[in-house]
Amino acid sequence: MKKLIQLFYTNLFLTGRLFTALSVCVLLFLLAFFFPWFALIPKLVFWLLMLLIIIDIIMLYRTPNAVFAKRHAPERLSNSDDNELGIYIENRYPLNIKAGIIDEIPHQFQRRDVLFETTLKTGEHKLINYNLRPVKRGEYEFGSIRVFIQSALGLVSRRFNFEQAETLPVYPSFLQMRKYELMAISNRLNEIGVKKVRRLGQSLEFEQIKPYVPGDDVRTVNWKATARHGSLMTNFYTDEKSQPVYCVIDKSRAMKMPFEGLSLLDYAINASLVLSNIALLKQDKAGLITLSEKIGAVIPADRKHSQIQKILEVLYKEKTRYLESNMEALYTTIRKVLTQRSLIVFFTNFESMNALQRQLPFLKRIARYHLLLVVFFENTELKQLTEAPATDVEGIYTKTIAEKFVYEKKLIVRELAQHGIQSILSTPQELNVNTINKYLELKARQRI
């Protein structure tokens, strides 16, 4: 009995309408103090209000399990994307109600506005959808669902608690990966900025000999097969396949810098996942190496269907380190693991020429045996400073320094090109498209 009384009080809340009605009662009693003939009306109003409160409480508490609510959430969330969640609510009262629903979302979102208000008729149910956008990988703990119910009187509110604590993992952006995958399958990558690159020359991978049809290149006629069959036969070539494509991700302190809530490491991880999936769709092999002061994960390149899931599970756990990258360890690992010429896409960041010069000797050694593509980031905030007008001496100084750093990024691209190293200088937001464009370009030019 004591527990029931405690539950009654802890789940009973007074509404703003009740406080307004009480304020009216107070004003009426004040008027009765100055006008004695008016004394009966405040008492009648007060006791009528008390009666309505009792009726309202009876209406809300007479039905056990009068409301049901449940959270609908995916098994995992996609980092940096809008993930759709839903709350199912069902009215089991014999009357129409007004509901206020609070979902206890993880603290990482720092949101206090996940409150949904709706009305439900008798026996009606609804599904309320909302979006969450995580900006960090890891585990996110959801709490209970709190539902506050009011009747048509709206004087008091009854709270229902639905314990639905669950932990959802936030993985690298698999939603972006699926979007690019669907567009690659339907040949619509150009709709999101991926360029169509004209193939130069002809692939050297022979597939079969087939009968000649008008329009075939006469240079592919196989004269020996023609003599045997008595009709023109041509060699049929297809795109080169099974080329190893390795994404190497730098996890050093240079990748800690944030842009729009995400670190450079998260941008690199999302781009690596998208590129690996596109490479597998193009029948190439995808592999992964992570690097900080020591070598992290190493996934040899493969074309198996489970390869992208293996890469996803590894990328989910990666975190930024606070030391500088060990390029010597990277070079040793590449020489040991990569047994044939491969495309190596190295996601890193250089903020100055000095940072490049420390790593350049090892980059040149890697480029001697493999096709190396260095991907680093354009500082968009510095670019905004260079475009903003300077109004005083301090502004001129700030703008000059910003222009110096922006120009130094371009010098880094030029320095890498002088040593025969491909590079991409990209804003974090355009990293996926720029990386795919470069991969398709290198493939079309038969560099891999």
From TrEMBL:
Which segments cross the bilayer? Answer: 12-38, 44-61
Q: Which residues form a coiled coil?
A: none
**Annotated ranges, domain DUF58:** 209-359
Q: Sorted alphabetically, which keywords does the UniProt record give?
A: Membrane, Transmembrane, Transmembrane helix
Q: A single Pfam family, by name?
A: DUF58
Cited PANTHER family: BLL2464 PROTEIN, SLR2013 PROTEIN
What name is this protein filed under? DUF58 domain-containing protein
Q: Which organism is it from?
A: Mucilaginibacter litoreus
Taxonomic lineage: Bacteria, Pseudomonadati, Bacteroidota, Sphingobacteriia, Sphingobacteriales
